[in-house]
Amino acid sequence: MITIGIGELNVCKVPESLVTYALGSCVGVCLYDSVMKVAGLAHVMLPQSTPGSTSNRYADVAVVNLVKEMEKKGASKLRLTAKIAGGAKMFESVSNNSIGNIGDRNVEAVKEMLRQLNIRIIASDTGANYGRTVYFYPEDGRLEIKTCKGVSKTI
Q1: Of 3, 105, 122, 127, which has the most beta carbons under 10 Å away?
Q2: Beta strands in the chain (DSSP E)
Q3: For residue 22, what are the domain limits?
Q4: Domain count of the fold of the chain
Q5: Which CATH number covers residue 65?
Q6: Catalytic (active site) residue 26
Q7: How does pLDDT run along the chain (155 residues), one tens digit per residue?
Q8: Is the dihedral of CA 64, 9, 143, 128 positive or negative?
């Protein structure tokens, strides 16, 4: 199991798998090539980078870099599909302004980058008010989500 930290990404093939913990307002972006059995996961923290930034904390940088890393492992951008999870509003007392709604902004930024790259989102589990840990498996593209409330699901 390869652990992805905040603002990090990684790619693997069988027998390895990927995990990122404690997605609150952050978004886990999972890309998959079902032919080559290549899986990639990015832990996106913020929606938009500043000019010249190369940090994978940002949706606009991380999604592009994740595709590049997957191509290095033999994936084809034309075959990639996406699953996303996270983007919660962790504090109900926070207003709906752009700062308080960072989870929604992260989700929208990830969706926009995937749209620009013509990568179809086939499943998602976003929003709400709870954290998630995600496990991503290259043998079948399965994304297991475990919430901080003890609920588990697979998408």
Answers
A1: 105
A2: 2-3, 9-13, 18-23, 27-33, 38-44, 81-86, 120-126, 132-137, 142-147, 152-154
A3: 2-154
A4: 1
A5: 3.30.1330.200
A6: yes
A7: 999 999 999 999 999 999 999 999 999 999 999 999 999 999 999 999 999 999 999 999 999 999 999 999 999 999 999 999 999 998 765 555 555 689 999 999 999 999 999 999 999 999 999 999 999 999 999 999 999 888 999 99
A8: negative
